[in-house]
């Protein structure tokens, strides 16, 4: 099935692989499978996939090591699917290079939706740079540094704009607190979470119709933020 997006599933549980295979095939994807870290890495290298769905609890290596090894040579989207539900595990995976993280048990619908988002983001990243980002009623002209919501131009401070631009570069992906702090305020500020709370609050008041029920700037509790891309 050369025309279908190829999704590599790396998971040591046969029932999970079977469930994912059926779900992926029914959604128009071409699944490939690996039951160990080494087999998965070998499969990714010999037949590069369009995305990877990865379990962290593999028999021969930790999934975090798999993420790091994949990120040495590929930017393919990686969605972690794990029984580890602690915030520290999610943050470690996302900081290590994963694009998204779902905790088992999971719903096939949510997984497929997040997979589609990851693939769209990857396509946008590899395509020629698009100077205008648009979602819903919000349009951001990155070349002109101009933000418009509906028929209203929004004036942002330099820091607010850097924060929004960082989220736009990762639209649809979870960006951890640490990643945002490093990108916007520099490596010396990675522990200053209050910066994010203050500036995200300011951005929401300027961009969202109802800041208490955000449409664009979404919170991933304890982990980071996600900019909606649809």
Describe the structure.
The protein has helices at 14-26, 37-46, 63-71, 87-96, 108-126, 158-169, 177-185, 193-207; strands at residues 6-10, 30-34, 51-54, 78-82, 100-103, 132-135, 138-141, 146-149, 152-154, 174-176, 217-220, 224-227. It has 230 residues and is α/β, with parallel strands linked by helices. A five-stranded parallel beta sheet has the order 2-1-3-4-5, with helices on both faces. α2 runs parallel beside α3 (63-71), α6 (158-169) crosses α7 and α6 packs across α8. The radius of gyration is 18 Å and the shape is globular.
Which sequence of strands runs across the widest sheet?
Answer: 2-1-3-4-5
Shape: globular
Tell me the number of strands: 12
- Strand fraction band? 15-25%
């Amino acid at each position: 099935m050369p025309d279908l997006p190829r999704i590599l599933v790396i998971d040591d549980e046969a029932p999970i692989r079977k469930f994912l295979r059926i779900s992926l095939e029914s959604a128009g994807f071409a699944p490939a499978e690996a039951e160990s870290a080494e087999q998965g890495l070998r499969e990714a290298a010999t037949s590069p996939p369009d995305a990877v769905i990865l379990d962290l609890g593999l028999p021969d290596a930790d999934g975090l090591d798999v993420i790091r090894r994949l990120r040495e040579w590929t930017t393919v989207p990686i969605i972690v699917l794990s029984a580890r539900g602690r915030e520290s595990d999610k943050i470690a995976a996302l900081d290590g290079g994963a694009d998204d993280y779902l905790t088992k048990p999971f719903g096939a619908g949510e997984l497929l939706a997040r997979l589609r988002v990851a693939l769209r983001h990857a396509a946008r990243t590899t395509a020629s740079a698009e100077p205008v980002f648009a979602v819903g009623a919000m349009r951001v002209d990155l070349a002109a540094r101009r933000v418009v919501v509906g028929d209203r131009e929004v004036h942002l401070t330099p820091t607010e704009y850097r924060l929004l631009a960082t989220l736009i570069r990762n639209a649809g992906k979870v960006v951890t607190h640490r990643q945002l702090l490093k990108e916007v305020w520099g490596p010396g500020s990675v522990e200053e979470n209050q910066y994010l709370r203050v500036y995200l609050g300011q951005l929401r008041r300027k961009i969202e119709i109802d800041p208490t029920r955000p449409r664009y700037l979404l919170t991933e509790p304890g982990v980071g933020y996600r900019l909606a891309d649809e």
